[in-house]
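Quiz preparation item.
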């Protein structure tokens, strides 16, 4: 919550307690987002509550950020699932030594079988000598993202 309060405070340049469209636009430009007027209007419309015509309250900002973060998390999870499925050549739901070694080799890492086995040992929670999907997610996601 403190992070959201700090972010809101940075966006609310005129300290009115609400964020106006031009404040949001300036903030997006400052972080390098190439946002056109239509995208800005859509984003602003999603955030604002009708009570604050043309402005975004802190409460509405928090709701938007929660939705936005959930969408980002879901996209990240979808991408991780896609990567896992690409590596899992025999489609048994587990990454075996050969599959993981092949994926690492394709990525430019030349590792021998023993090195890959050591990697698997570090992340193999259930000690089955393979990496299942949950273990793979734990490896790639932040702990707080995984807990959600």
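Solution:
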């Amino acid at each position: 919550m403190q992070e959201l309060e700090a972010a809101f405070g940075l966006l609310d340049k005129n300290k009115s307690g609400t964020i106006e469209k031009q404040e949001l636009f300036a903030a997006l430009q400052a972080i390098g987002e190439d946002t056109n007027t239509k995208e800005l209007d859509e984003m602003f419309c999603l955030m604002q509550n009708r009570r604050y015509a043309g402005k975004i309250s802190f409460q509405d900002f928090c709701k938007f950020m929660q939705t936005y973060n959930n969408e980002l998390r879901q996209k990240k999870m979808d991408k991780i699932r896609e990567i896992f499925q690409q590596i899992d050549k025999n489609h048994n739901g587990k990454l075996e030594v050969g599959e993981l070694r092949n994926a690492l080799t394709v990525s430019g890492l030349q590792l021998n079988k023993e090195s890959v086995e050591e990697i698997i040992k570090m992340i193999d929670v259930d000690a089955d000598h393979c990496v299942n999907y949950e273990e793979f997610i734990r490896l790639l996601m932040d702990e707080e993202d995984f807990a959600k």
